[in-house]
Amino acid sequence: MEWYGVVLACLAAGALIGFAGGVLGIGGGLLAIPLLGLMLDMDQQAAQGTALIMVLPAVLMTVRKYNQKAKINLQAAGAGAAGSIVFTWIGAQIALGIDPVLLRRIYAAFVLSIALFYFYQSRRSEPRQSRPQAPRRNVEDFHKGWFALIGTVAGLAGGIFGVGGSVLVVPILTTVFRQTQTGAQALALTMVIPGTFVALFAYAVHGQADWTIGVPMALGSIFLVPYGVRLAYSLPEPRLKLTFACMLLVIMVLLLIKA
To answer: What Gene Ontology cellular component terms go with this record (predicted)?
Structure first.
């Protein structure tokens, strides 16, 4: 394929992934990684590093749009970001030393566990008259140290898998901290922004980031992110969780095909 064909394909793929990331609050990276491995035959580490190039501007755009819908608590997000930075670097060093096939299989298991959790959550979220709904909590009700601890978990996952820290944090925020799905997605993405810079630097230093692929995907992704965020706020929460789970299952299948 000619170079301009590759660029156009990356722009189109980035746009679709950006839309999915806006809806699901994952920056699109979870979907980009298996596609890069499957379509371009990238090793897992190279796919993760390249996906980070696309993810970073998409995450920034998604957070901006979420914040326009409902203000994000920057103190809680900052505490989480502080906790994530060092552990993102540690996670990236672990990932860069693992066999690519083994890392892909571990990633698939990680994605499957999150998908099963969201299937469970989508069923529990269906309204039932026999069960009272637990009240939502405000972020301000919790000590910022809790968010710093959550940030370490997000950082370690984001470093090992390139992306995915926010995916792991969202269910913690919705269950333990009783946040709405969209509120949890917004806060989780804001937490992982500094860690995403750290992860991209770590992968790029080791030559595991293809900028000729990642940059056009990044440009494509930012065009449809606002529409994805708009759809996320229009969907009922159980349906959003079910959509999230279905998307993760598709990702897992793509990963296993490549593995």
So the answer is: plasma membrane
